[in-house]
UniProtKB/TrEMBL annotation:
InterPro entries xrefs: DNA_recombination_RmuC
Transmembrane region(s): 15-37
Domain of life: Bacteria
Coiled-coil regions listed: none
Pfam families: RmuC
Protein name per the record: DNA recombination protein RmuC homolog
Keyword tags: Coiled coil, DNA recombination, Membrane, Transmembrane, Transmembrane helix
Family statement: Belongs to the RmuC family.
Length: 412
């Protein structure tokens, strides 16, 4: 970089290099001219051709000076142009920087507004979420309290049920109360299956024995007794046997107890001419009934032989439904005569109704005939009235006047 008269010139610039080369050439010419002038004093006479060349060289140097001036002007113009271009570039860069800065400010403001809006929306959503969560939490707590209350109620029911179970165990541990338990269950089943007038509870027979229930079936088969038996001790011993000896003793106890119940029912509640040729033994436990039929089939066969039919609550209900059908059929047979009588009366009523309908039909026929004759008479009277209305006395012929009916005075 070279500074000349306050202006900076780059050595890489072609114009500057051309100027330097020109300046070097001029300097070289001046040196040669100086050397020539020194030699001119020595060889004045021999320098005439050289003088001519020097004159030509002087002209060339003058032309070089003019070129140098032109070069200096071009360099100045280039420097001014470069300065103006630099100023314009600086102004353009500043304008673009200002525009970019403004755009950045606008973007930052827009981003700030969007961020504020998004933050507000997020806060609102968080508020709604927290409100919903708190509401759900309150609902869940309410439901939890309700469930805890239900659990407390269920616990109370369980406690009460435990007491009831203990009471039931106390009831079943006593023979009298256990018998009452079986009778109550039997009464409940019978009352649901049969009409109230078809059975008697605690019926006393002619032999003085009292049966738990007497079903009034028609002959045959006749009234049949149902007696409740509950061999609970023998069943519990059978189920709770811990070894073969205890099991053998429990089996013998269960067989003896059930056989005694079968014999008692057969001898006490089957009476010739008074009851049916058989009776029912009601076991109020399905478990005892299943154990009896599964492991003691000989007892079941023995009960069949003694005409004692063993039933459980389920089979008792089925048996009573069959008895209900028998009672219904018997009552239908009892009412057959009354039904035939009512059918005869109904037949007579129908015949009487037919006669009355025939009479009414004749009346309607006569009335229709009378109405037809009345219509004919009315039509004749209408035609006569029309002729009288159109009659003109002035147009009567002399020979027709004799046919005119004279008007008499009306009686007042």
């Amino acid at each position: 970089m070279i500074e000349i008269a306050g202006n900076s010139y780059s050595l890489d610039d072609p114009m500057v290099m051309a100027g330097l080369i020109g300046a070097g050439v001029v300097l070289l010419i001046l040196v040669l001219l100086f050397l020539a002038l020194r030699a001119a004093n020595r060889s004045a006479r021999m320098a005439e051709p050289l003088a001519q060349q020097m004159a030509v060289l002087g002209q060339s140097v003058q032309q070089l000076s003019l070129g140098q001036e032109q070069l200096r002007g071009g360099l100045q113009h280039v420097s001014d142009t470069q300065a103006n271009a630099q100023v314009q570039v600086i102004q353009t860069v500043e304008a673009r920087l200002s525009a970019v800065q403004q755009h950045m400010n606008d973007r930052l403001a827009d981003n700030a507004m969007k961020s504020a809006r998004a933050l507000a929306e997020m806060q609102e959503r968080m508020k709604e979420t927290l409100h919903g969560t708190s509401k759900q939490t309150a609902t869940s707590l309410t439901q939890l309290q309700e469930r805890l209350a239900a659990i407390d109620k269920a616990q109370d029911n369980i406690t009460k049920l435990s007491g009831d179970v203990l009471s039931l165990q106390d009831i079943l541990s006593n023979k009298q109360t256990r018998g009452a338990f079986g009778e109550i269950q039997l009464n409940d089943i019978v009352s649901k299956a049969l009409p109230s007038d078809s059975y008697v509870l605690q019926a006393t027979l002619s032999n003085g024995r009292r049966a738990d229930c007497l079903i009034r079936l028609p002959n045959p088969p006749g009234p049949i007794v149902i007696d409740s038996k509950f061999p609970l001790e023998a069943y519990e011993a059978l189920v709770g046997a811990g070894n073969d000896m205890e099991l053998k003793a429990a089996v013998q106890m269960f067989r003896t107890t059930v056989r005694k119940h079968i014999t008692d029912i057969s001898t006490k509640y089957i009476l010739d001419g008074e009851t049916a040729d058989g009776a029912l033994m009601f076991l109020p436990s399905e478990a005892v009934y299943a154990e009896l039929h599964a492991k003691f089939p000989e007892l079941v066969q023995e009960s069949f032989a003694k005409r004692v039919w063993i039933v459980s609550p389920t089979t008792c209900m089925a048996t009573l439904n069959t008895m209900r059908a028998i009672l219904k059929d018997a009552r239908m047979r009892e009412q057959a005569g009354a039904i035939r009588k009512e059918l005869g009366l109904l037949h007579k009523d129908v015949e009487r109704l037919g006669d009355r309908v025939a009479n009414l039909d004749r009346h309607f026929g006569q009335a229709a005939k009378d109405i037809s004759e009345i219509k004919i008479s009315a039509e004749k009277a209408g035609r006569r009235a029309q002729r009288l209305d159109n009659f003109d006395f002035e147009e009567l012929a002399p020979e027709d006047r004799a046919n005119v009916v004279p008007l008499g005075k009306t009686e007042g």
